[in-house]
Automatic annotation (TrEMBL), chain A:
Belongs to the CPA3 antiporters (TC 2.A.63) subunit F family. The keyword Ribonucleoprotein does not apply. Its main location: membrane. This is Multicomponent Na+:H+ antiporter subunit F. GO terms for cellular component: plasma membrane. The chain crosses the membrane at residues 33-52, 59-81. The keyword Transmembrane applies. It comes from the Bacteria. It is found in: Cell membrane. PANTHER family: NA(+)/H(+) ANTIPORTER SUBUNIT F1, NA(+)_H(+) ANTIPORTER SUBUNIT F. InterPro entries: MrpF/PhaF-like (IPR007208). It comes from Halomonas stenophila. Pfam families: MrpF_PhaF.
TrEMBL record, chain B:
The lineage of its organism: Bacteria, Pseudomonadati, Pseudomonadota, Gammaproteobacteria, Oceanospirillales. Residues 114-123 have a biased composition (Basic and acidic residues). The chain crosses the membrane at residues 6-28, 40-57, 63-83. NCBIfam families: CPA3_mnhG_phaG (TIGR01300), PRK12674.1-2 (NF009314). This is Multicomponent Na+:H+ antiporter subunit G. InterPro entries: PhaG_MnhG_YufB. Signal peptide: none annotated. It comes from Halomonas stenophila.
Amino acid sequence: MPIIILFCLTLLTLALGLVFLRLFRGPGLPDRVVALELFATITVGIIGLLAIATDIALLLDAAIVMALMSFMATIGFARFVERGGPRDD
Amino acid sequence: MIEWLVIGLILAGTTFMLVAAIGVVRLPDLLTRMHATTKAATLGVSLIMLAVALHFGEVAVVARALGVVLFLMMTAPVAAHVIGRAGYFVGTRLWSGTVKDELRPHYHPLTHRLDSGLERSDEPSAPVPRDPS
């Protein structure tokens, strides 16, 4: 079981690296917002895996807060992008 | 028995989230990337949270895990809709292989108005036609 969780954590870290690549390269602001949202979602998954690995159920509260924060951040960024008008970055 | 189920769910969820990350890197434009993040990543987190619920097996933990799943399933479409709308408003380029963009001939990027093609030109609220660019 610990081996499986370690393997999955490695894969998720690889996924985080790939998303960071898009966050770094992304041609526009909306692409970066999408990458940030996926970043938060993968972090929720990592917290879930850690809760299984350490048998601490309290970590799920952190996962809930993380999901909520990512939703709020996405809505805020979208308002920010929308008010900015046409842009070419 | 439960342990094998948990392992299977963890592996499946991790695979889906890795696929979502690969999709974000490989897909060509904003809307196709959102397709990867909303569906595959939500499914991956849901499977992992199901594994958490099975692993603990207490009522409080199961309720919280299902709460996370419910919250993600409710917010992911809303967030994707909002960011896709904002991306279209600011003129994000679509993929060069896009076959059809039905919104473009009816949408005025400066006023954010939609027309149906049936307006009379003497209507006071008729939007100005946009440049064919």
